[in-house]
């Protein structure tokens, strides 16, 4: 054990000397800040009403305009003004008195057709179209209820809308998993670098003369890489907690995260020991991690989803099972790789 | 004259031959037998992954829903709402009798029922943000469920009583002003291009076709698997961009026929010219379908012909996803390139190359060339695959160059592979977000053009791009790439390559290379190149000013990133912090090379020299800033047509010329004073430099606050 700890301490001292761990934390901070920037931007685009009470003024005409006015009364973001004929509505649109026009006419089939005109390629177009969609969907719902007798299965009544933060789901299902898993990949990459660097500089030969076995060297390097991961994740979770985002099941999340780190570090060590140089090793490692992680995320109950459910406090026995499975998987994978390396050596 | 030209040509050919030789050597090393094995291993990984995912698809266990089952809904399994909950991935049903609000359920749903069917619904949510979010999810689930119910209805008129035809038109007055993105000339150009593709419709106004592509491309993002008229049109219009995604072009074509009819039916009144266009939601019957994943699109539940639910805002989702594909290979490429450069530096492996007659520039150019070639080839392949044109390849090129340049600097500075990994990751993250994030706002604001990727999105949407827009988008990135290579090349020499120094000190060394001596008693080296033509007295000061001017692109990027990072904070905190951060970034850019100059003995450590270099640095910054302001005004004039760019000028029209000159020169005074302040600190030692820099930042921030409050 002592020699393993020595190797691990040496690794961490190297990291400290280069101060690169600070850069890693900086990158993560940047990603966290940038994702919130991103989500605010995206939300403002999909749901402009969520940011400020934008009101869209619609100039309407046609024989079904009265119903459209009814619908507008139910939609907070849109108001409808009636005009004599389509030409008058269009004139209002042209002189900027309205954001859009809607010409609603009843057709012979018993339906209503609405011809909507929205301004082309201006900054507000997206906002206007989103509000128009809300208005028209409400209109559709009202018209549908009137025709409910002709339907074999009437639509279900929709519950009243309530206020909610558009960032809530994003924070738990994207931001927290990203912040928790970034240190995992960084640790794996560190192990690849650490082993290929020893090979490249020829210092591994020196280590072999020292009274340690290959297995102990790998153990030490892996130990250092795994040890620095949960601290970073914990830092993020605490920061979020301070920021008013409660995170549940923190110990379980850290356990799952440590298991994944061990798994990834094991894979990284295996690749680094087998690959000819750092370029090949890093390339293979990137591909392997993409594949592993992408595959695990795509399969139901993957680690990303498990972390989201743990953090949001919706965990059930299936989530616990996921954690147990990953812990077992990590142990098996790491021991397997270690055995392989002890048998075949590094870089041979 | 002719002899000199001939000599120059000979030199260029000799130089390019040398570069070519290095490039061949680098390429042969990278594609040796060993790396072929690596590639095979990577392919094996991918094959395994494909197998796993394929098996997952077959057993129905695959879904990229990161939000699967995050909200628990207590509901009676017999309730009609149970189906809606079942179909929404983010909701999981808990039997009503076991559900306790707050512990095992976040939401409890009870429906009021009469003999005819459900009459109402009562939702009780836990009183937390989670409960609210769960209630909103449930509402969306019910909406989507209703859309599905209706789609299965035999009576179509009753199920979808409202048919919407959405059309984008320019306002009569707005057209005259021409105040928005490419509405006047840009629009015409793109119409012309499209008229060529479907010339049979030439009689009915080409403007229509233009915005149809526009709208169709956006519809593609959200309506996965719906295939209404709009989508199919876009598949056609953007030269098969979408077809390549799903591979059932036959279906799309048939849908296109429908859409085409629809245009002719409704397009009678299309007499407004400009950017008008009908966007039919007409008669697609779900035959086609786009393979673009429905990320975020599920909420719209769009599965209907021409119903309001199928309206999608003009958001270029599909094009954005495709544009992102261009960035993926860059990350791998940068990693390989960084490894190769750093490998030269370990165990002095690159030394034999340095003692050959090859110049460092030739070595680096040769080493970089294969990677540039691979980048271009990969970009071209992706462009062919996703339906982009030459514009896409040209626009991605500066991004690739910047990736490689930043990696090169990182590899020259880094002490170990570990350090290089962090540098590479940082470069990838920063550049990817710099390129990708503005592109999200492509159709929203012209400022999106600061990223070259926006051009790719335009290209995928089939819109024409003016030369001005192209230069505006790619110029800064290209300049940044050149400057970064220059920075790294300065220390591509024996004494720096094979020494282990902290990154910061290497950075100072790299800056000093670009400086010339100022003041008495400092060692001088003979000047070469352009520097030799500048009189000796001012040579050092010109170098300082020039170096400061070169930092401008990076200053802008840093300020943009600061804005992005501080965006999430409340305004009362973010504005003051931002003003200080911006001041700090600018002060640092003006003084860090001065510090390097004093530290490495290029400048004499006297106050007179400090003042001189400080003023020179301030002047350089001022000139560069004004030059970019002019470029921006020119670039943005084209975009905004004067509205935004000259708004601020109009505000000062009433002031006297003297005040105007004062306002114009005030920044010069500020930059000169603060840079001199930092320089005086820098000439002593590190501590005084840090203190002086802090003082200069405060002065600058105070000035910023003054300007902001003056402008109201």
From TrEMBL, chain A:
Keywords: Membrane, Transmembrane, Transmembrane helix. The keyword Transcription does not apply. Residues 80-305 form the ABC-2 type transporter transmembrane domain. Its main location: membrane. It is found in: Membrane. It holds the Pfam family ABC2_membrane_3. The chain crosses the membrane at residues 21-46, 167-192, 222-240, 252-275, 287-312, 318-337. This is ABC transporter permease. It comes from Halorubrum rubrum. The lineage of its organism: Archaea, Methanobacteriati, Methanobacteriota, Stenosarchaea group, Halobacteria.
Automatic annotation (TrEMBL), chain B:
Keywords: Hydrolase, Membrane, Metalloprotease, Protease, Transmembrane, Transmembrane helix. Residues 243-273 have a biased composition (Acidic residues). The chain crosses the membrane at residues 317-338, 368-387, 393-413, 420-450, 470-492, 540-558, 564-585, 606-624, 644-668, 689-710. Residues 213-228, 274-290 have a biased composition (Gly residues). Coiled coil: none annotated. The keyword Protein biosynthesis does not apply. One of its GO terms (molecular function) is metallopeptidase activity. The keyword Coiled coil does not apply. This is PrsW family intramembrane metalloprotease. Residues 174-290 are annotated as: Disordered.
């Amino acid at each position: 054990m002592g020699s393993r700890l020595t190797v691990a301490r040496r690794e961490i001292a190297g990291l400290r000397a280069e101060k690169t761990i600070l850069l890693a934390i900086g990158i993560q901070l940047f990603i966290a800040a940038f994702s919130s920037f991103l989500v605010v931007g995206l939300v403002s685009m999909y749901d402009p009403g969520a940011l400020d009470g934008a009101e869209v003024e619609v100039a309407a005409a046609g024989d079904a305009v009265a119903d459209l006015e009814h619908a507008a009364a139910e939609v907070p973001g849109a108001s409808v003004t009636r005009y004599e004929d389509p030409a008058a509505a269009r004139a209002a649109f042209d002189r900027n008195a309205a954001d859009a026009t809607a010409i609603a006419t009843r057709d012979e089939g018993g339906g209503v057709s609405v011809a909507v005109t929205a301004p082309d390629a201006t900054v507000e177009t997206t906002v206007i179209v989103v509000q128009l969609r809300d208005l028209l969907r409400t209109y559709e719902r009202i018209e549908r209820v009137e025709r409910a007798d002709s339907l074999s299965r009437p639509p279900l009544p929709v519950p009243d809308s309530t206020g909610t933060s558009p960032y809530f789901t994003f924070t738990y299902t994207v931001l927290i998993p990203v912040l928790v898993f970034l240190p995992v990949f960084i640790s794996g990459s560190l192990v690849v670098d650490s082993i290929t660097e020893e090979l490249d500089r020829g210092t591994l030969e020196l280590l072999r003369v020292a009274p340690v076995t290959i297995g102990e060297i790998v153990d030490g390097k892996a130990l250092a890489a795994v040890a620095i991961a949960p601290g970073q994740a914990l830092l993020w979770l605490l920061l979020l907690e301070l920021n008013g985002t409660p995170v549940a099941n923190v110990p379980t999340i850290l356990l799952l995260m440590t298991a994944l780190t061990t798994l990834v570090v094991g894979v990284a060590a295996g690749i680094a020991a087998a690959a000819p140089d750092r370029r090949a090793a890093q390339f293979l490692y990137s591909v392997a991690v993409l594949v592993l992680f992408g595959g695990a995320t795509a399969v139901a109950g993957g680690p990303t989803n498990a972390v989201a459910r743990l953090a949001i406090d919706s965990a059930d026995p299936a989530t616990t099972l996921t954690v147990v499975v990953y812990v077992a998987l990590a142990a098996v994978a790491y021991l397997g790789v270690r055995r392989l390396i002890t048998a075949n050596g590094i870089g041979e | 004259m002719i002899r000199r030209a001939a000599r120059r040509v000979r030199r260029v050919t000799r130089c390019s031959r040398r570069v070519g030789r290095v490039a061949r050597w680098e390429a042969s090393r990278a594609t040796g037998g060993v790396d072929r094995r690596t590639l095979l291993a990577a392919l094996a990984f991918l094959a395994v992954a494909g197998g796993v995912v394929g098996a997952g698809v077959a057993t129905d266990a695959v879904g990229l829903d990161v939000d699967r089952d995050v909200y628990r809904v207590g509901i009676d399994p017999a309730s009609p709402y149970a189906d809606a909950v079942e179909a929404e991935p983010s909701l999981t049903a808990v039997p009503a009798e076991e559900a306790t609000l707050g512990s095992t359920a976040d939401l409890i749903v009870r429906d009021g029922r009469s003999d005819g069917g459900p009459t109402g619904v009562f939702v009780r949510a836990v009183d937390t943000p989670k409960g609210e979010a769960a209630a909103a999810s449930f509402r969306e689930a019910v909406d989507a469920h209703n859309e599905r119910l209706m789609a299965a209805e035999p009576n179509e008129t009753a199920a979808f009583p409202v048919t919407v035809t959405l059309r984008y038109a320019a306002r009569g007055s707005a057209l005259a002003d021409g105040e928005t993105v490419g509405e006047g000339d840009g629009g015409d150009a793109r119409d012309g291009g499209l008229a060529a593709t479907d010339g049979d419709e030439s009689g009915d106004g080409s403007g229509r076709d233009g915005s149809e592509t526009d709208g169709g491309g956006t519809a593609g993002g959200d309506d996965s698997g719906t295939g209404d008229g709009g989508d199919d049109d876009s598949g056609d219009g953007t030269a098969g961009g979408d077809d390549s995604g799903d591979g059932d072009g036959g279906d799309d074509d048939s849908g296109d026929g429908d859409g085409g009819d629809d245009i002719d039916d409704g397009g009678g009144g299309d007499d407004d010219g400009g950017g008008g266009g009908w966007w039919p939601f007409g008669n697609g019957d779900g035959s086609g379908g786009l393979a673009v994943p429905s990320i975020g699109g599920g909420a719209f539940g769009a599965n209907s012909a021409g119903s309001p639910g199928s309206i999608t805002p003009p958001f270029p989702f599909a094009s954005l996803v495709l544009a992102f594909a261009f960035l993926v290979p860059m990350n791998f490429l940068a990693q390989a390139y960084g490894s190769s450069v750093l490998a030269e530096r370990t165990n002095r492996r690159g030394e034999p190359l340095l003692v050959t007659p090859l110049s460092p520039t030739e070595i680096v150019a040769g080493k970089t060339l294969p990677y540039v070639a691979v980048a271009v080839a990969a970009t071209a392949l992706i462009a062919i695959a996703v339906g982009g044109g030459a514009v896409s390849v040209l626009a991605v090129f500066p991004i690739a160059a910047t990736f490689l340049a930043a990696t090169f600097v990182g590899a020259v500075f880094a002490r170990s592979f570990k350090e290089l990994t962090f540098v590479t990751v940082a470069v990838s993250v920063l550049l990817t977000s710099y390129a990708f994030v503005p592109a999200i706002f492509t159709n929203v604001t012209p400022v999106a053009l600061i990223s070259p990727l926006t051009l790719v999105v335009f290209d995928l949407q089939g819109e024409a791009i003016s030369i001005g827009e192209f230069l505006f988008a790619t110029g800064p990135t290209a300049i940044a790439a050149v400057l970064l290579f220059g920075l790294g090349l300065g220390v591509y020499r024996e004494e720096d390559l094979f020494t282990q120094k902290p990154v910061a000190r290497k950075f100072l060394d790299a800056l000093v290379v670009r400086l010339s001596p100022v003041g008495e008693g400092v060692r001088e080296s003979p000047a070469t190149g352009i520097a030799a033509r500048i009189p000796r007295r001012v040579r050092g000061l010109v170098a300082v000013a020039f170096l400061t001017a070169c930092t401008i692109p990076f200053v802008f990027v840093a300020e943009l990133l600061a804005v992005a990072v501080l965006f999430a904070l409340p305004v009362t905190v973010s504005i003051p912090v931002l003003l200080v951060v911006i001041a700090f970034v600018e002060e640092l850019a003006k003084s860090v090379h001065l510090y390097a100059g004093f530290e490495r003995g290029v400048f004499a450590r006297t106050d007179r020299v400090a003042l001189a270099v400080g003023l020179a640095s301030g002047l350089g910054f001022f000139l560069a800033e004004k030059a970019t302001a002019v470029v921006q005004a020119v670039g943005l004039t084209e975009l905004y047509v004067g509205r935004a760019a000259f708004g601020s000028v109009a505000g000062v029209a009433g002031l006297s010329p003297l005040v105007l000159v004062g306002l114009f020169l005030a920044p010069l005074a500020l930059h000169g004073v603060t840079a001199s302040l930092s320089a005086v600190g820098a000439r002593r030692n590190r501590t005084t430099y840090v203190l002086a820099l802090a003082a200069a930042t405060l002065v600058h921030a105070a000035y910023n606050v003054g300007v902001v409050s003056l402008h109201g």
